[in-house]
Amino acid sequence: MTSNASAPVRVGLIGAGPWARAMHAPMLAAGPQTHLTAVWARRSEAAAALAGAHGAVAVADVEELFERCEAVAFAVPPAVQAPLAVRAARAGKALLLDKPLGADLAGARAVAQAVAESGVVSQMVLTKRYHPATRAFLARARQTKVTGARSCYLHGAFLDGEMATGWRLKEGALLDLGPHLLDLLDAAVGPIVSVRATGDPRRWVELSCRHENGAVSQASLSGAVRLPRPRTRIELLGESEEVVWDSAGAGHQESWPLLREEFAAAVRSGVPGPLTAAHGLRLQELIAMATP
Fold it and tell me: Which spans of this chain does the record mark as coiled coil (predicted)?
């Protein structure tokens, strides 16, 4: 790893699909804290196109990608991410990980264990957590005694379009959207100690969460409902005035600067933030608890 603490972190990207094109590649290439150096994907033509669009190099395999970077970002299905993240951690690379951490609890545990044993920095891309509005909401939540909470994450991306494929259609909203909402409820209300689920994750699933402080929260998840725009909302209720967070008008791009800055700072200092692979494992444990 470079000794120049102010130098951009050299990041290799694994994946060249819709999320890599829309988020990872432009965010990492924009800098100044990071520099996108290389892209690898199972479809070499997609990797070449994405790398060329952002001044990076398309590489033939992950070992070559590891040689060209000091951190690895993942934009691939969870069943692909988990084993490659283990390899990257063992190669001494910092990890920028997508959610869910693995396709199942065993995969998630393998990643978290590899990170712990290798001592590398890890950070989860829970995009909403890096938005200024979310940070303001969580700051207010910390000053609020919550009795109960209602929340939802709803959209129609599983009905058609680029996201209506593969693991998302098979596993549904619990594994795809659940990490986001459980993470926010855990942070806003208090640590979740139990989760119960009813419904079909491929259509609509309801979660009932019990928190360490005695509060109860509800979460509605669906990727198969037609809406004008995605709807993510949390309402915190108690003896004082309600505290509400709503994603309306909050674009992903507004989260990129803080996400990039915090990841680069963690890599350069060697001190990870709170959203590590261990946190990703905790979210996966909650999802496993809720799996119908």
Answer: none
